[in-house]
Amino acid sequence: MSAPSAGAPPRQVIVGVDGGGTKTGVSILDAATKELLAQTVAGSTNWNSVGKEPAFLTLRRAVLCALTAASSSASDVLWIWLGRPGCALICGTGSIAVGLSAHEGVLRVGGWGPLFLDGGSGYDLGQQALAAVARATDGRGGDTILQAAICAYCNVTNSMDLLGWAYAQQGWAPIAALAPLVIAAAEGGDEVAAEIIARAADQAAGAVAAMVTKCGLQGAFPIALTGGLLEDPNSGFSKALYMRLKRDHPEAALVASSLPAHHMAALLASL
């Protein structure tokens, strides 16, 4: 990254933000070249989790820090309207589908937060896994390797000890952090974990379907896919979701990105 030379006109920049329940990422792009100038990561800005005032302060600090790292300031930020109808699905600690309608502007589906159990999120997978362990322990559900895997991860002796662990957690991130264990168990052939993955993929695909209907999207349109759960396109969850999206929207272009969601947001804003 190079700073603007003395006497040069101010460089306009684009700010991309991914504010989640675990962390908040900010990317700064050069508006003209799309060059990535700076990235920062801060704490949660989900106000349902941390409160509105702390969320706002964290977001403000993160954006200003990123702008400073990019040798820019708030006056350099360029607002560009996203001019191509389509939708994006973000699956991280929480999940949300965001779409752009040619007539109604930006719309959303999901993103209600963990208490409303956003389907296809890390919290969704983690909560379903804990419920499956409880059922297996009680004899109300099938045995699953999630019992041993989650106990080992949480450093407890047996499933009953998970009660103390779960209710001692602060925020949503610790439950969402169980999601990789579910994906690994499903990929290893565990039927209970595979059912959890299937339900979560159904919910995530359903959010996209609702967004497509809301936006009136037809034919060929982009579906951007990003977030922590989708970083590995070859994971069991990613594959299950892709299969459903291709089935439901055969002409749509699935744009899976290994870029952080905040970088992708800035790139989409520059189109």
Automatic annotation (TrEMBL):
Task: Give the ATPase BadF/BadG/BcrA/BcrD type domain ranges.
Answer: 83-252
InterPro entries according to UniProt: ATPase_BadF, ATPase_NBD, Euk-type_GlcNAc_Kinase
Taxonomic superkingdom: Eukaryota
Molecular-function annotations in GO = N-acetylglucosamine kinase activity
| EC number(s) reported in the record | 2.7.1.59
**One Pfam family name from the record?**
BcrAD_BadFG
Q: Which family does it belong to?
A: Belongs to the eukaryotic-type N-acetylglucosamine kinase family.
PANTHER family assigned to the protein according to its UniProt record, in alphabetical order: N-ACETYL-D-GLUCOSAMINE KINASE
Q: What is this protein called?
A: N-acetyl-D-glucosamine kinase
